[in-house]
Design a protein that fits this description.
This protein is an alpha/beta fold. Helix content is about 35%, strand content about 15%. The protein has a four-stranded parallel sheet with strand order 1-2-3-4, with helices on one face. Helix 1 runs parallel beside helix 2.
C-alpha cells in the first residue's frame, strides 16, 4: 500500500513579489524584469506555452537570479517547465 502524500502549506515571505511571464517573453526580457524588482523573494509564474524551454536558458536565468541575490521559485502547470527549472536548481512550487 502506497503512503499518502500530505500537502503542507508553504509559508511565503511577506516581501514576496509575484511576476507573471508572458508566453512570448524571451530570456532577455525576463532577466531585465528580475533586475528591476527590488524585493528579494520572487515567485515567477511561467505559462505552459513559454519560450523558456531550453536548459541553457534556465541555467542563465538561475545564474542571473543568484548574481542579483534573488530567491526565485518557479510556478507552472507545465511538468516540463517544472522539471527543467528543478534541473538547474530553482525551487519549484
Amino acid at each position: 500500500m502506497a503512503a499518502k502524500k500530505i500537502k503542507v502549506p508553504v509559508q511565503r515571505p511577506l516581501d514576496e513579489q509575484v511576476v507573471y511571464i508572458d508566453p512570448g517573453e524571451n530570456i532577455t526580457a525576463v532577466r531585465e524584469r528580475l533586475e528591476r524588482i527590488e524585493g528579494q523573494h520572487i515567485a515567477l509564474v511561467v505559462p505552459p506555452q513559454t519560450h523558456l524551454r531550453g536548459q541553457v536558458v534556465w541555467k542563465l536565468l538561475h545564474a542571473r537570479a543568484k548574481e542579483l541575490g534573488k530567491d526565485v521559485y518557479i510556478v507552472s502547470s507545465d511538468p516540463q517547465v517544472r522539471a527543467m527549472a528543478r534541473s538547474v536548481r530553482f525551487k519549484v512550487a
